[in-house]
Amino acid sequence: MNIIIDTSILRKDRGFLNSDILLIKKLAKLDLLKIHFPWIVFKESISQNLLEVKNGIENAIKEISSLNRKGIDIEEYEKLKEIAKKLETINLKTEKSIEKHWERFIIDSKAILHEINEEHGKKVMTSYFLGSKPFPVPKSRKDIPDAFIYESILTINEKFGKTYFICDDKNLRESIAKNEDCQVFKTYEEFFDSDIYKPIDSEYKKIEHFADELIVLKENVDKIEKYAKEELYRDLFAGDEQVIVHENIPSDGNEGALQGIEGELVKTIQFDKIQFVDGVFYIPVEMKACFRIEYFLFKADYYLCEERNISIIDHDWNKHYYLVEEPFNVSLSFKCTIEQESIKYGEFEFDYEPAIIDELEIIEK
Q1: Cβ pair 34, 229 in contact under 8 A
Q2: Where are the beta strands (DSSP E) in 246-320?
């Protein structure tokens, strides 16, 4: 089975740390499937990783350099300056580090990285001017990378046969779906739930056995729920202002700061979707709640949102923006993890994967 994963999926887990990609990787290492990466997916992912990592290191250097203004002793401050210099050295190697991170995953998973075919450029530009697949309209520049991914998938189909494409980009997914040699899925979950995956799952379960531990987990659902709720609160309120980014937040950059959670979290433990990878159980949890999110809204836009439950917190933030707050109905998903050995010895030492916001719904008046 040939699997292709789009940038829209990979950007949600740039460290290759979540259970979905770990399972895909292990299945690939067992030769139960083959992963294919178009070169554009590889480069898009690396460029986004590089931007975020460099920004993170540069911000850390700035914070360290300003600590003397906050009352720290000169001896400790000089030591911190040495740390900042080391961070500057590391920052120079960031691009190579990120490439090495990706190359290690490709090698470990026995994936194939597909270079751009010399014919792809011509086909992409022809489609660009005509507005043919995957361009929704002629001369849509933002869809050029997707067009190279589209052509790469067609080439992979010709060489390796039928492919299975996991993609959260609606336009690209629907364009590829029109090709009978490629089946598409919006999420890892859709792929794992599909009939096409069942034979692979059956083969995998012959190799990894965990039935006894699964029974124990089901008998201790209260412990899982308690841990999941506590860790979710810690995750959501990890800083003074936890930033939420979603297209339904009408601010610049579609981002706002979480101010609070209204009502009780509704929890669902999905035992039928538990994954077992390298001696670790990954337990899917879904939660729903009402979030109060604060953000800056352009004043002219405020009057276009009269049907929404937006409250102005500060009318005079500046001449362009109101500071506002709005409630949203939110659905989150994440996974608790626990090692097999921990269950065997009656210990429940959980860990936690960061939550992902699946839905952030507007609440109308």
Answers
A1: no
A2: 255-269, 275-277, 280-298, 311-314
Task: Return contacts of 61-69, CB within 8 angstroms, 24+ apart.
Answer: 61/87, 61/88, 61/91
Token couple for 106: 């490709």
* pLDDT tens-place string over residues 205-224: 877 777 678 778 888 888 88
Q: Is the dihedral of CA 11, 14, 17, 21 positive or negative?
A: positive
Residue type, 28: A
Q: Is the dihedral of CA 99, 167, 119, 127 positive or negative?
A: negative
CB within 8 Å of 281: residues ≥ 6 apart: 210, 213, 214, 217, 274, 275, 337, 338, 339, 340, 343
Q: What is the DSSP letter of 86?
A: H
347 SS3 class: coil
Torsion sign (Cα): 246, 251, 255, 259: negative
Helix (H) or strand (E) run with residue 226 in it: helix 221-236
DSSP secondary structure letters along 114-158:
EPPPTTHHHHHHHHHHHT-TT-SSTT-GGGHHHHHHHHHHHHHHH
DSSP states of 161-213 as a string? --EEEE---HHHHHHHHTSTTEEEESSHHHHHHSGGGHHHHHHHHHH---HHH
Which helix (H) or strand (E) element contains residue 57?
helix 39-65
Name residue 164's amino acid.
Answer: Y
Backbone angles phi, psi at 230, to 5 degrees: -65, -45
pLDDT tens per residue, range 42-97: 988 888 888 888 888 988 888 888 888 888 888 888 888 899 899 988 888 888 89
